[in-house]
Give the backbone structure.
Amino acid sequence: MSDCLVIIPTFNEKDNIERIIRKVFSLSRSMDVLIVEDNSPDGTAGIVKSMMNEFSGRLFIEERKGKLGLGTAYIHGFRWALERHYEYIFEMDADFSHNPDDLLRLYDAAKNQGGDLVIGSRYITGVNVVNWPMGRVLMSYFASTYVRFVTRMHVMDTTAGFKCYTRKVLETIDLDKIRFTGYAFQIEMKYTAWKLGFRILEVPIIFTDRTQGESKMSKGIFKEAVLGVISLRWRSIMGKIKPQNVRVS
Ligand SMILES: Nc1nc2c(ncn2[C@@H]2O[C@H](COP(=O)(O)OP(=O)(O)OP(=O)(O)O)[C@@H](O)[C@H]2O)c(=O)[nH]1
Ligand SMILES: [Mg+2]
């Protein structure tokens, strides 16, 4: 039984999903996989289900009714993980922008180097992005700088979506209070963890643009992030970022 769970949210990833699942299961450390599927019209769920016999007890799927956004997909996955025994809970995209081999490096930083939350970072050693148009690289890089400026958080890649959470971080964050869903979700999770005093480590990774399937990036997601950061900082000033209430039994 593995204490690692890799959560992969999917929407229309039929060209990537089987390969990425096989790749995770080929790693030298055993990790379970949870796919959070939003009823993709392209049949992604069917592909996952056809593999579940082969990877029985290691591959899981949670299906939602429609495209409800990345943030809520991850929250769903986090709750699923917390109801079970997992100690290291990873976020990873399905499209190979995140190299599954790096899961081992994130794990090592969480297990052996004291990271409560470990981020696969594109910007810790310069700019490690392959095949993105220059406009998108610049936008992402300056977005990270903007977020650092507004929040004062010491994280280079604030919108990164390749992460390893230790269980205690997800247990402490009040997941009901997480409000954003796109890039802002990634910022909100890091900011909340940081505000709650957890140690965040960044591990350099190379991020490669997807070669299969279509982008789901939208203007709305970008706008949410720009305004969301200001709202996060405001909530923090108002003392609204608190750990989840501990129930006294
Ligand atoms: N379950 C679920 N997964 C989603 C949703 N939106 C995106 N995803 C998945 O989340 C991951 C990241 O989304 P991407 O579309 O790769 O977003 P991106 O990396 O910002 O942009 P591109 O790589 O250019 O498409 C992928 O695995 C997507 O399939 C959603 O609404 N629900
Ligand atoms: Mg992508």
Summary: The chain is about 40% helix and 15% strand.
